[in-house]
Amino acid sequence: MSSPEMNFHTRKWVKPEDLNPNQTLFGGRLLQWIDEEAALYAVIQLENTHIVTKFISEINFISAPRQGDIIEIGILATEFGRTSVTLRCEVRNKMTRQPILSIEKLIFVNLDENGKPKPHGKTSVTYVKDKFDGK
């Protein structure tokens, strides 16, 4: 499921307070984690803290993590629009690599100080380490 360029940075430990009545990870909690991680990724890519979630495509729940599982969230930028960035997300079990969830498109919009869409001028993924090399 995962592509070679997908980077899995964020890890979460499934704790008792994250469970639903079936004793598996509550989907809403996982979506909260994903939205936060994807927003942080968009902020770093667009170099602007003023962004909003515009669209999240179909969410494919593949398997249900249980208490004690460690999951990891992978995010990848797939497209840069004039004022937006489109991301893809995959979640997997850190230890077994079993896929947990995939979302093909999460779209974030870059905003100005008045909350209006603003062109960001980005055309490709940048990496934090590249921004600091040689400085």
What descriptors fit this protein?
single chain; 135 residues; 19% helix; elongated
Could you walk me through the main structural features you see in this protein, from its secondary elements to its overall organization?
With 135 residues, the protein is of the alpha+beta class. The chain has a single domain, classed as Hotdog Thioesterase (Thiol Ester Dehydrase, Chain A). The protein has helices at residues 27-46, 128-132; strands at residues 7-13, 51-56, 59-61, 70-80, 84-93, 99-110. Strands 1, 2, 3, 4, 5 and 6 form a six-stranded antiparallel sheet that branches. β4 and β5 (84-93) form a beta hairpin. The protein is elongated, with a radius of gyration of 16 Å. The termini are far apart. The model has no long low-confidence stretch (mean pLDDT 91).
